[in-house]
Design brief:
By secondary structure, the protein is of the alpha/beta class. Helices cover about 40% and strands about 20% of the residues. It has helices at about 5-15, 20-35, 40-55, 70-75, 95-105, 120, 140-150, 180-195, and strands at about 60-65, 85-90, 110-115, 130-135, 150-160, 195-200, 210-214. It has a seven-stranded mixed beta sheet with strand order 3-2-1-4-5-7-6, with helices on both faces. A hairpin with a 5-residue loop joins strand 6 and strand 7. Helix 3 (about 40-55) runs parallel beside helix 4 (about 70-75). The protein is globular and about 45 Å long. It starts with 5 loop residues before the first helix and ends with a strand. InterPro entries: Cation-dep_OMT, SAM-dependent_MTases_sf, SAM_O-MeTrfase. Keywords: Methyltransferase, S-adenosyl-L-methionine, Transferase. This is O-methyltransferase. It comes from Pontibacter amylolyticus.
């Protein structure tokens, strides 16, 4: 399900700052060579993530779900000079490709890339996060949120991708409720009801939940 008319999407991208040559390369190579390229953040959402990062000026970023590294490089654009982006993915098959992109971006010293189970890795990262981006297995969104919320500074942000799940969160689609949709419904309600944050669900691409910790 596409949330924006294709021509409007194109118009929006035409009036959005362009992605860098490297990001364009990652975008293209992902679509050519990697399964499920729709998982890539892409031009419009990538520029939004970059914009958020520049506004927040984070020193410590956590990303859960690296995929091919596109969103990590976008988020890293707003890092403070001595800042660090920690990105975690379970797919070791993409490791060499992602590390190559990180090196090509000149971010080998700024990006720490972990391969493995994020639920086990996150507790070993001993920092306070200014910005967290969750874009991994939907079933564990609530677990990731609960794991990081106390480690996000006051005024820090948690952003979760795919929270509209191709529109499946709507009541008219709930007769055939799959596991991922059920998990996202629970996650969205939990964030909405959490008194520790102020939140907005943006219908950008497949939905971004943006929560600011009070």
């Amino acid at each position: 399900m596409e949330f924006l008319d294709e021509e409007l999407q194109q118009y929006a991208e035409e009036h959005t700052s362009p992605e860098s040559e490297l990001l364009h390369k990652i975008n293209r190579q992902t679509h050519l060579n990697v399964m499920r390229p729709r998982m890539l953040s892409g031009h419009l959402q990538g520029r939004l993530l970059s914009m958020f990062s520049y506004m927040i000026r984070p020193k410590q970023i956590l990303e859960v779900g690296t995929y091919t590294g596109y969103s990590a490089l976008c988020l890293a654009e707003g890092l403070q000079e001595d800042g660090t982006l920690h990105t975690i993915d379970i797919n070791e098959e993409l490791e060499d490709t992602v590390r190559g992109y990180i090196k090509e971006a000149g971010l080998s010293e700024s990006v720490k890339y972990y391969i493995g189970n994020a639920l086990e890795i996150i507790p070993t990262i001993d920092v306070t996060f200014d910005l967290v981006f969750i874009d991994a297995d939907k079933y564990n969104y609530t677990n990731y949120y609960n794991l990081v919320i106390d480690r996000v500074r006051s005024g820090g942000y948690i952003i979760a991708d795919n929270v509209l799940w191709s529109g499946k969160v709507l009541a008219k689609y709930r007769k055939k409720l799959d596991e991922d949709t059920a998990a996202l419904l629970d996650f969205n309600k939990m964030v909405q009801d959490d008194p520790r944050v102020e939140n907005i669900l943006l219908p950008v691409r497949d939905g971004l939940m943006v929560a600011r910790k009070k």
